[in-house]
Every structure is written in C-alpha cells, then in structure tokens.
Write a structure and sequence with these properties.
Keywords: Signal. With about 190 residues, this protein is of the alpha+beta class. It has three helices and eight strands; from the N terminus they run E-E-H-E-E-E-H-E-E-E-H.
Length: about 190
C-alpha cells in the first residue's frame, strides 16, 4: 500500500470580537492562508509567506567580541575597566561598555553597539538633530562619523563605536576609524 503525501492549503479567518472603543463594539476579521504538510513532505515554497511578513533577522556578532580590552584601552589612551555586556539578541550582547577606571585619572569610556538601534541612532543624530557628519572612505559598506562616534555597516549589520574622552575630538577621528576597521574584521 502506497501512502500519498498530504499537502493542504486552508483559508483561515481570524475574528477579534468583544473589543470596544468608547463603548462601541469592534469586530475585525482577517483572512490568512495556512499551509499544512505531512512529515517528510517538501516544505512550501518561500514565496508562500504572507505579504507584509517580517523577514528573518541575521544573527548579530557579540558586541564584546568586536574590540578587545587592550584595543579599547588604546582607543581611550588609558586603562579602562573590564568589558560589561548588555542587551541580548540571539544570545549575543548588543552593547559592550568599557567604563573609565576610577584608579586612572581622567574621564574615558568606550562603548560598542551592534544592531538595528545603531542605524536608528545614526538617523536621529544625522537627520533629526542635524549633527555634523563625515563619510570616511574604505570602512565597511557604509560609514558615518561625528564627534566621538563612528557608525559603520557591513552587509546588513550596523556597528557603532562611541568614545567619551576629554580631549579635542579631532584627535580621535583616526583612532575611531581604526577601531571600526578592527571591529568589522571580526565578523
């Protein structure tokens, strides 16, 4: 006896009821298509995703893997505290901070950010707040730099390196670019 593969495409209507705005009942309906396959059947074609669906995200590199402690110390020109990861996406830290060491005179901090928030931060600084930016050449697929920050993109991944240091920002332009090149070389 031969078993035939099973593939069904079922229209499903979702209805939301019982909701109200200002005492007025709301009913909403939406039709979606659900594809059901039996084990061993080929998966449905990729184009079967409903319009407007969110594409799968690329896993991000861990922000704390992009600069070493020694590299952060070199960028800041002093000894910083050990890296502190924060924010997690797909098991990787999206922020890594090297805070100033209270035993070392002066103020310094290096922070590395990875992910969608970097692009949003760039857009706010550049387009909304109208910060002054330059576009350094030869760093990733796209790079933007302002005083104390460099934003770089490789493929779909954005990285920001932020440097807080009480020196003339012009002195930090090239060191930030070098740090960005190192970070991009690690993924």
């Amino acid at each position: 006896m031969k078993i035939r593969p099973f593939l069904a495409v079922l229209p499903v209507v979702l209805v939301l009821g019982g909701c109200a705005v200002d005492g007025t009942p709301i009913a909403a309906a939406r039709q979606v298509t659900v594809t059901v396959t039996a084990p061993g059947d080929a998966p449905p074609p990729e184009s079967s995703a409903p319009a407007g669906s969110i594409p799968a995200k690329t896993p991000l590199p861990d922000a704390c893997s992009l600069l070493t402690q020694e590299e952060a110390n070199t960028l800041a020109g002093r000894t910083l505290l050990d890296m502190e990861p924060a924010g997690v996406e797909f098991g990787a830290a999206t922020m890594c901070q090297f805070a100033g060491n209270p035993e070392d005179p002066g103020i310094a901090q290096v922070t590395v950010f990875v992910g969608d928030g970097v692009e949003k931060s760039l857009q706010i600084d550049r387009d909304t707040l109208k910060h002054t930016f330059t576009q350094p050449a030869g760093i990733g697929d796209e790079a933007w730099q302002e005083d104390g920050n460099i934003f770089v993109r490789k493929g779909t991944v954005w990285v920001q390196i932020s440097l807080v240091l009480l020196t003339d920002d012009a002195e930090n332009v090239v060191p930030l670019q070098e740090a960005a090149k190192l970070a991009l070389s690690r993924f």
